[in-house]
Amino acid sequence: MFGPTSILITTIILAVALISLLIIKPSITVSRGGKILAFVSLLVFPVLGGSMGVSEHIERSKNTEFCTSCHVMQDYGKSLRIDDPSFLPAAHFQNNRVPRDAACYTCHTDYAMYGDFRAKLRGLRHLYVQYLGKVPDKIELYDPYNNRECLHCHLGARSFEEGATHNVEVGRLDLIKANKLSCLSTGCHEATHNVKNLGSLTFWSTDSKGKTGDAEAAGDAGTGSDK
Amino acid sequence: MAKTINMERRLRIAGTLVVLGLLIELISLLWSHPIAFIVFVAAGGLLIGVGIVIYLYSLVSGGESVVRENDEVKAISVPK
After folding, report:
1. Which of A160, A188, B66, B72 could join A154 in a cystine, given CB atoms 3.0 to 4.6 angstroms apart?
2. Contact at 8 Å (CB) between A83 and A204?
3. pLDDT tens digits along A162-179
4. What's the pTM value of the predicted model, to 2 decimals?
């Protein structure tokens, strides 16, 4: 299939070929056709390729594999395979409630490169800290987790709207929807990544008929495969 | 000492920079990693940007080639 990546690579290769022609024989720019060729190959194609490339890289950064490629995030990738359904990210990942190849992005849409300009700057700062700075011992979200991320999928779902706990008192559902009652930090869905205790947990592995108990075995969370 | 500054030379420099930038961008696309994005923008983007600026400069300053030879300046019209 001729997808965006193929178009991008074709554009770049075409630009390189045309520019090489200009480098070898710049005198062709004397003619009108040569001037147009120079304009297209030195300006139009590179700008087009650059724009498409940025878009492609941002699209790729949604991959779970991309997020967990930094050492500091690898434990978070492993936590997606904790063999305990009370752990929210693990339950979502293992039951395909989020796409496995975009698990991080699906629940953290306002994070790093995905959110507003400020979030993108934070993403660049993370890169700086990862390679040139000091990674903090404890990694925390900049802002408390917003229910909005949960409601992207759960809003309108029968299990959410009619759930007994969500309707245990009048107005509770409205508080949840207004982000005034946190899904995560009010005692309802508190177990999230819990990376500090990974060593004492068991992990789900689809290729070994069950549990491995070894955190290393869960390290392939980022692959998004069912192997 | 002869020193030649002309549009063709600027085009060659611009073309070389843009090609290098494009090749770096192409290589960065083969790698899905945060560093690949930085290489794409910082190295590839910078080279392409500088190449385009040199190309645009060659357009506005072009039209004639100047050959400086033994402190004697001759203006040579570029055929159109």
Report:
1. A160
2. yes
3. 999 899 889 999 999 999
4. 0.72
